[in-house]
Structure formats: C-alpha cells, structure tokens
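Title: Comparing notes on inverse folding

I've been comparing how different people in this forum approach sequence design from structure. To keep things fair, I'm posting one structure and asking everyone to reply with a full sequence. Here's the target:
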C-alpha cells in the first residue's frame, strides 16, 4: 500500500512525540488524522510548568503542513469519550493507529490520589476505547502503542525484548517479560500491555509495543526548524526528561541535580531515532494475532555518567557546569544490574544517533536562544514518591 493510501491516526498528536511524528509522516505523504484534547497544555498551565518554547496549536500546524500534504486533518477529541471516538474511528477506518494519548509523567502520577487516578483513568480508558473501536470497525488495523522501559523496572537478570522463555519441571513456554513499574504511570502502561496482549490472542488484533527509554532532543528536520514546527521542550520537575533538564540547568547556571547516588542506569534515545523506530514499526506490521515488542533505546548510561557527559561536552564550548546530588525523591533501586536487549529495531534497519558532544551542543544552542523563558523555580524536584 502506498503512503498516500495508508491512513494513519495519531492519538496525542500535540505531545512531545506527536508533534514531530506528524511533521515526519506528513512529509512522507501519509493520509493523517490527528487527535488530541490538549490535556498536556492544560496540565502544564495548571501547574505553571510551561515549556521552554512556544509552539503553535495543531490547527495552525495543520494549515502549514497542508502546503506539502493536503491529506491531513485534526479532530479535537478526548479518547476517553467512547461515543465520539467510535464515530471518528468508524468514519476514518485507519490502517494504523499510533497511540500517544496518555498522561506521560511518572512524577504527576505520584503527586496525590487525584493525579494517580487521573493517570490510570485517562490511560486505561483511552487504550480500552481504542481496542474496542478496532474490534468493531477495522480488526486489521495495526495498533502501535508507545510503552516505556520503566515497565520492566530493574530486574537482576537481562531484560529481553518483551518476552521471556521459561523452562520449568521439564516443560517450557513463553511469557510476557515480568513487569515491575515504580510509579502509577508505569503501572498504567503495564496494564495497557496486558489489555493489548489479551485482545491479540483472544480477538486476533495486531499490535506493536515500543518500550521506549527517556528521550532527548528538539530538532528532527530542517523543515521543522524553518517553519516553526518544532515540538515542545519541557525541562521541569513534572514533565521534563532528564537530559533536556540537565542542559537547561547548565545554561541557567544551576548545578545538574542528580537524584541519590546517581548509579541508576537507563536506556536513552534521541528524538530522531524515536521517529525512525515508529516508521520502521509502520513498515513492519506483526500480522494478525501477533504482538511485536521492541526495546526502543540506543545507549545505556547511569545518571552519573550522563551528568558527567553533559559537563564534559558543555565545558568544551565554554559553559561551566556543576553537579549536585540530592536526596532521591523517588522510591527506586539506585545500585542495580541493568542489561537490556535492543537488537530488534537494529535488525529492521535502525541506525542509532548516538549522544555525542555535537548533539549536546546543538540542544544547548537551542536552549540558549530561549534562555529568557527559563523558570528556575520549576526545575528542582518537589514531588516525593514516599
């Protein structure tokens, strides 16, 4: 099927990943339906956690993108609304749905009872409504769900790509890799996975689950840079990702805040590689009654290693960087084994963009251009898991 004939629905199209994916797929000529209810903007405004940059709303971006692709449409819609979502899905009957329509913040989910319930309710109901619509109106639709490496936790064995082969009392079977999330956000993702797997083997759906590590970066294409189509850049304690936050701290002359010992290891990925992974998933559907799982990251670092890498890179361009250890506000293992397999996407053709001095300097240059918008009061952690 040609790109022009392939109908892709992006749920959560206004988010950190949804914005650049929209631009990328529009440039490739896909028929796009964008869905969002602006919940991330509402939460950012409510908590006074505005991103570093100002970004256009989807309506404005669609007008700009229609200059290169006329088959792009926006529906302001809450995916929790079953009736309205079913109506839209039945009308479009997409071939692929990329599911970003979730409250994606571990700190937010641990802020209190209300925020924890909002996370569970929003994320699970959106996923369930999507599954129900696919079963009713287009069972061949390929669901691409964005998971998180945080679902796995930090087990004392190697982390396989989604599945674990077990031998027990002379017999063997294959199971979803055990999950042990450390926040209600991660728990909602685990339950998403269970719901999807249930419907794969019970109702013959086809699903790809992308278990993504922390993302960093801002620019994904020259077209985005020239046409003011870059995504939002969060750096705060609720919605910011660690590397982006470190670079903002360095530019604002604030010590990089490392939680606890800094020995925590995670798998990281460049925003550009995230888009490439999703493209590869679109091009390689698993087939009916199958669930494909990929660990979506390119490099593993401890937080200490990451902070020192930022310090070294920025020192080279004349920015003095200090590092400060804080009492860990999270409940997590700090010293642990961590070895995750990430060969699946490479086999499909991913050529990783590694975290080099040049990449860090490019992000720092962008932050410096928006330095006047840095709010130093929203960087230090204020939410405790305990």
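Reply #1:
Here's my take.
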């Amino acid at each position: 099927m040609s790109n022009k004939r392939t109908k892709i629905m992006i749920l959560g199209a206004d988010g950190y990943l949804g914005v650049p994916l929209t631009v990328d797929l529009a440039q490739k000529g896909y028929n796009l339906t964008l869905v969002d209810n602006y919940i991330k903007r509402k939460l950012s405004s409510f908590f006074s956690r505005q991103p570093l940059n100002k970004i256009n709303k989807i309506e404005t971006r669609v007008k700009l993108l229609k200059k290169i692709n006329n088959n792009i449409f926006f529906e302001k819609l809450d995916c929790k609304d079953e009736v309205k979502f079913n109506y839209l899905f039945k009308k479009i009957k997409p071939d692929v749905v990329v599911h970003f329509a979730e409250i994606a913040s571990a700190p937010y989910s641990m802020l209190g009872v209300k925020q924890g319930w909002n996370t569970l309710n929003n994320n699970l109901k959106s996923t369930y409504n999507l599954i129900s619509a696919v079963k009713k109106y287009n069972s061949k639709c390929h669901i691409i769900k964005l998971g998180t490496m945080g679902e796995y936790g930090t087990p004392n064995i190697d982390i396989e790509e989604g599945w674990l082969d077990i031998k027990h009392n002379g017999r063997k079977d294959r199971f979803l890799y055990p999950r042990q999330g450390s926040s209600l956000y991660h728990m909602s993702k685990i339950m998403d996975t269970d719901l999807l797997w249930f419907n794969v083997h019970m109702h013959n759906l086809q699903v790809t689950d992308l278990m993504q590590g922390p993302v960093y970066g801002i620019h994904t294409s020259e077209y985005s840079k020239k046409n003011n189509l870059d995504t939002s850049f969060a750096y705060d304690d609720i919605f910011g990702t660690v590397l982006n936050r470190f670079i903002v701290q360095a530019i604002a002359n604030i010590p990089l805040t490392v939680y606890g010992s800094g020995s925590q290891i995670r798998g990281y990925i460049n925003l550009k590689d995230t888009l490439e992974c999703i493209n590869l998933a679109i091009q390689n559907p698993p087939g009916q009654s199958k669930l494909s799982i990929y660990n979506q990251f390119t490099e593993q670092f401890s937080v200490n290693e990451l902070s020192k890498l930022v310090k070294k890179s920025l020192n080279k361009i004349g920015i003095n960087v200090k590092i400060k250890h804080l009492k860990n506000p999270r409940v997590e293992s700090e010293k642990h084994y961590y070895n995750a397999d990430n060969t699946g996407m490479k086999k499909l053709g991913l050529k990783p963009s590694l975290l080099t001095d040049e990449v860090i300097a490019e992000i720092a240059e962008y932050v410096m251009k928006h330095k006047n918008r840095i709010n130093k009061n929203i960087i230090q952690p204020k939410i405790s898991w305990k």
